[in-house]
Amino acid sequence: MLSFLLDEQISPEITKQINSKRPDISIIAIHTWHDSYYLGVSDEIILKLAAKEKLTLITYDQKTIPPILSEWGELNISHGGVIFIDYRSIPPHNFGRLVKAVIWLWDIQSKEDWQNRIVYLQPETSTEGKGDNEKPSMVIYKFSSAPLHPHFLH
Fold first, then answer.
1. CA–CA gap between residue 112 and residue 62 (Å, rounded)
2. Which tens digit of pLDDT belongs to each residue from 77-132?
3. Distance CA 141, CA 12 (A)
4. What does each C-alpha distance from 130 to 96, 127, 150 come to in angstroms?
5. CA distances from 18 to 27, 33, 118, 151 (A)
6. Can you give the CATH number for the domain in which 125 is found?
7. Count: domains in the chain
8. From CA 154, how far away is CA 152, in angstroms rounded?
9. Rounded distance, CA 74 to CA 98, Å?
10. Which of 15, 18, 81, 146 is the right S-S partner for 29, CB 3.0 to 4.6 Å?
């Protein structure tokens, strides 16, 4: 069963909003995980403990985590799964969009095995019937499981 751990750059308010809408979704913010003990701790330690506890990390950190995952892949070290979110696609301050994206992903992927899985979560907008300057009336989220590309390692 899929369980989420929100990285420190994601507001713990996201956890509260998801829990109020969908108490069936297992989600915890690193801000409260183990009484905040791991807040500010290295990504490697967080990823190791998350894997041990079968938690999938949701993060905006596409700078420091991909090199760790690449190294672990070469060394055959497992992780609990990582969901990357791009700042431009789903801004951290846009709680509504982030909550919808996480719920959507859980709804379609909660039964999957998330060990060693890497997903890039991004919105796909539908602008059918709208002018170029209008906001889309519906946002559809998609994911792609893919190996790490070199541009994520810079």
1. 23
2. 999 999 998 888 889 999 999 999 899 889 988 998 888 988 888 765 544 444 43
3. 22
4. 22, 5, 36
5. 8, 16, 22, 32
6. 3.40.50
7. 1
8. 6
9. 32
10. 15
